[in-house]
Amino acid sequence: MPRVDKLLLGKRASEVPTIVTRLCGLCPVTHHLAGMRALDQLVDSSDSISVQAIQLRRLLHAGSVLDTLAPRLLPDHGLEIRKFAKLVLRAAGCPGHFPDVATPGGVHAQADADAVKRAADGVSTIRGLLPSQPVESADKKQSELADLFACDADGTADPLGDFIATRYEGELHLFPAYDFFDHVREQYPGSITPRPQVLIDGHWRDYRVGPVARFPHLSARDAQFALVRSVLDDIEKLLQAPELLAEPGVVDNSLRDGTATGIVDGPRGLLVHRYTVEDGNLVDCQILSPTAQNEGWLARMLTQASTPAEMEHAIRSADPCLPCTSAPEGAMNINIERK
After folding, report:
1. Bridge-based pairing state of the strands 203-208 and 258-266
2. Which of 15, 148, 247, 313 is the most exposed place for a label (fewest CB within 10 A)?
């Protein structure tokens, strides 16, 4: 996928997250939230985002993960699940495909009370469609790659967490999310295949992101199911929170000069937006998508694969943001030419 970083330079920084959602339309909510999380750090109210704003953003994120993953995992119930996911997004103030919920330092949308009630009544039905949860189903072999996911200060997975966890050879290391690019480098800066690496104990390591990074004891498919279960739990709790229906607070979202990094752990993994702002305009930008971060992992799996079925499995595991990942089982039409 082409990188959009350079296309954004010179734009009004406050408009950049909206522009990116149009350029990268497969995961608009994740781009919207990652961009706004970066801009949050450049407003004076960044340390006091309201509980209501945080809950609305979390509900928006959870609905988008459900909308992206669940219909592909359960195609026989795809329409039912997608309708429910769209209801959750509407509850979070997003009635259409492109979100306009968050603003730097807060939100300017309001929860839809009717959609909140209807979604709360439907959570158990959607949960009942999921298969039983496996205890352990991944390959026992230790991955050669590090796993990266967003978390809180205790290392507990949190898609909107302020820390990044790095798991390598059974050890967990944490660093602040806003320091992401002090710990991660692109081997080929600006390339569509940047092959990023993470610094662990003085060594640069290849890594992967996404559900498998968060649930390494599970197969890729089971890890995606585990993520769906997790967001359903989040949705159920958030829909019961009385603060969700509060009026959005007024926020002075004028931006000061500086560089900030916003990260969201979306349906495909970490999405990173780093902006440098001067006089309200974007003068430097770096966007690192889950697809770009997982490209090296996908290349390894495809190189090791020997049949179309194995290649299809590799593509579904890495889950690049391409339409083919939504194809029915066995319908990616992969052909191998041997030379």
Report:
1. unpaired
2. 247
What is the pLDDT at residue 27? 87
The full 3-state SS of 173-206, as one line of letters, equals EEEEHHHHHHHEEECCCCCCCCCEEEEECCEEEE
pLDDT for res 45? 62
Do the bridges between strand 171-176 and strand 196-200 make them parallel or antiparallel, or are there none, so unpaired?
A: unpaired
For helices 113-127 and 78-91, give the axis angle rounded to 10 degrees.
150
Q: What is the pTM of this model?
A: 0.94
Question: 213: helix, coil or strand?
Answer: helix
Looking at residue 148, the DSSP 8-state letter turns out to be E
pLDDT of residue 77: 95
Structure tokens at 259: 């560089």
263 C-beta neighbours (distance < 10 Å), count: 25
Give me 207's structure tokens.
């890594």
Give every residue of the chain whose pLDDT is below 50, as ranges.
Answer: none
State phi, psi for 102 to the nearest 5 degrees: -85, 155
Helix ranges, the chain (H): 16-23, 28-40, 51-73, 78-91, 113-127, 180-183, 211-214, 220-240, 290-304, 308-318
The answer to whether 127 touches 146, Cβ cutoff 8 Å, is no
Question: 173 forms bridges with which residues in the sheet?
Answer: 166
Would you state the structure tokens that stand for residue 38, as one six-digit string?
A: 């970066």
Q: Which amino acid is at 218?
A: L
Quick check: 178 and 41 in contact, CB under 8 A? yes
**Which tens digits make up the pLDDT trace of 57-73?**
999 999 999 999 999 99
C-alpha 189, offset from chain centre: 22
Residue 108 half-sphere exposure, CB side, CA atoms within 13 Å? 10
**Chain-wide mean pLDDT for the chain?**
92
